[in-house]
């Protein structure tokens, strides 16, 4: 299965978001995902299996529990692939950062006075 096939499913993306917060038991993941998506424990388990089988998650036993965590390697590969396209959104974001810095500098050099309030002070 291709990385984007795995990540294309909103349930699997949400599971990865949960796992990004830290290691979680299968039961914890099932509880959250079941409540948010209205799907059964076996369905959540199947999504966890897809993530595990495709390298996006690791699992380790702890007693009777199975603890899942994110495996970052496939995400690094997706990020490397996206580098080809990053130029389409990076320059505008650099320009925005420049404009924000310019505004902060302007406010620092010319703080609002009582006779010239800012828009938020009116």
Could you characterize the architecture of this molecule?
The chain is 58% helix and 11% strand. By secondary structure, the chain is mainly alpha-helical. Helix 2 crosses helix 4 and helix 3 crosses helix 4.
List the helices and strands and how they pair.
Blueprint: H1 3-7, H2 10-20, E1 24-25, H3 26-37, H4 41-53, E2 57-62, E3 65-70, H5 73-82, H6 90-109
Antiparallel strand pairs: 1-3, 2-3
Helix pairs in contact: 2-4, 3-4
Note the run of SSEs as H and E: HHEHHEEHH
Helix/strand/pairing category: mainly alpha
Order of the strands making up the biggest sheet:
1-3-2
Q: What's the rounded overall pLDDT mean? A: 89
Q: What portion of residues is helical?
A: 55-70%
Summary keywords:
elongated; three-stranded antiparallel sheet; 122 residues; 6 helices
Summarize, please.
This protein is mainly α and about 120 residues long. The chain has helices spanning about 5, 10-20, 25-35, 40-55, 75-80, 90-110, and strands spanning about 25, 55-60, 65-70. The termini are far apart.
